Amino acid sequence: MSYYIVISYDIVDDKKRNRVAKILLDYGRRVQKSVFECRVGEKEYLKIKERIEKTIDMNEDSVRYYFLCAKCQENIDISGWGTVTEDEETIIV
């Protein structure tokens, strides 16, 4: 099963914020400064969450994970630049 997750964060410390951004770049695409869209399986999601929770200060920082259903994904509307994150095309040779 694959999830479409929008992940946003508010992290006080610059170094921690940069580390979280690098973690998220391993799994998805940055769509705004502190917002990422990721298409991942359950194991990848759990790994993302684990890595982030090891990085942030649980008393000062906030990371939110929004799971969007297929119907919700179809209704994403964007004003300005950007596109909705699509599934990567798989080519079998």
Gyration radius, to the nearest Å?
Answer: 14 Å
- What oligomeric state do these chains adopt? single chain
* Overall shape: globular
Protein structure class: alpha+beta
Write the CATH architecture name. Answer: 2-Layer Sandwich
The number of domains is: 1
Layout of helices and strands:
Elements: E1 2-10, H1 14-25, E2 28-32, E3 35-41, H2 42-55, E4 62-68, H3 70-74
Antiparallel strand pairs: 1-3, 1-4, 2-3
Helix pairs in contact: 1-2
Explain what you see.
It contains 3 helices and 4 strands, in the order βαββαβα. It is of the alpha+beta class and 93 residues long. The protein has one domain: Alpha-Beta Plaits (2-Layer Sandwich), CATH 3.30.70.240. A 4-stranded antiparallel β-sheet has the order 2-3-1-4. The longest helix is centred in the middle third of the chain and has 14 residues. The protein is globular.
Question: How would you briefly describe this protein structure?
Answer:
The chain has 93 residues and is an alpha+beta fold. It has one domain: Alpha-Beta Plaits, CATH 3.30.70.240.
State the main characteristics.
Alpha-Beta Plaits, disordered C terminus, alpha+beta
